[in-house]
Amino acid sequence: MPQENKINLSIIIPVYNEDQYLKTLFNQIIKFFNNKSIELIFVDDGSTDSSAEILASFEKNSNYNFNLKIVSLEKNSGKGKAIQVGINNSSGEYILLQDADLELDIEDANEMYQIIKNNNIIKCIFGSRYLSGKLKKNNYFVNTLVGKINSFIFNIFFSQSLSDVHCGLKILHRSVVDKINLTVNDFGIEIDLASQIVRNKFFIYEYGVSYYFRTKSQGKKITWIDGIKSFYYLLKARFFDNDRSTNISIIFTSLYMAYVGSYFGMGLGNTLFIISFLIIGSFLGLQYKIISSSIIFLFIYLGSFFGSGNGTSLSVLIFFIMGILLARYIKKRFHISRFNYLF
After folding, report:
1. Block means of pLDDT (10 residues each) for the chain, length 343 residues?
2. Last residue of a domain, one of 214, 239, 264
3. For the whole model, what pTM was predicted?
4. CATH number (domain holding residue 132)
5. Last residue of a domain, which of 219, 239, 259?
6. Domain that holds residue 40
7. 156 DSSP assignment
8. CA distance readout (Å), 63 to 33, 66, 67
9. What is the tally of structural domains in the chain?
10. Among 32, 204, 189, which residue's Cα sits nearest to residue 105?
11. CA 102: distance to chain centroid?
């Protein structure tokens, strides 16, 4: 019995009312990915135009050699859900995520695939619309601004240096996909995906790609509401989607840092210090678990017994720094211990 061809690459394309682009897209995929070791997975996300009929017609096409799969969802569930369904139906060693609207070039996708399959160290590449010297068409300043702000916030939250978190062109090794559990069903999938990759200690490489922005009249679906929701997903990914010990530490550290802030300023200034220190505390809680945080708080408490007036504020600040240094030292000592979740 002949051995079944191994699938090296799964191309996943979510589709929602993209009938004006699908034929061109399919021909481009044939041009750059026409290989028996590749599977193409279209996920029709409840389209109400003629997308379903066009996708069905592709199965009658005799010009392609890749394995074609068409998965249909009964109702529109969002880009994130379509990607999750596509991943669950994939079998390739690499997973390529590509939008159906031709904003991103299939040739760039092929270049990214050639890079990752020939380098065993690279497990994840994100396309970036802001890095390349390639051709671009984009006159929507606000969308670009929001995308760059979101990427900036993501970098602060996750200690990264990415230029374009929201680019829809990405390629992942199966080992990355097997480590993550995507749950976001809408356009927030990009933040969900990137945050889980970082949490699982995979390095994200970037590759400059072409970008041809389309207007709302041409079928653009993302709106300003999605831009606002993206800020929520950033906060959720960083401060809520953590293990229990980290969440407890965030709450505990935020509260005692607010207490530290109460030693500074007067009136409205004091309130601003409390809020600022509470925010700082939430970031500390991501770095130091409950025992390390307790050490920091103990030093702060001891510092409050020294000095008077502004002297007390200075004493609290000095003891806070001492507590940070000690907590960092202890955290390193217990890093490989089975009790590291407490430090």
Report:
1. 71 95 95 96 95 94 92 93 96 96 94 96 95 77 81 91 93 96 90 94 95 71 73 87 84 84 76 84 83 84 75 80 86 72 65
2. 239
3. 0.83
4. 3.90.550.10
5. 239
6. 9-239
7. H
8. 12, 10, 12
9. 2
10. 32
11. 22
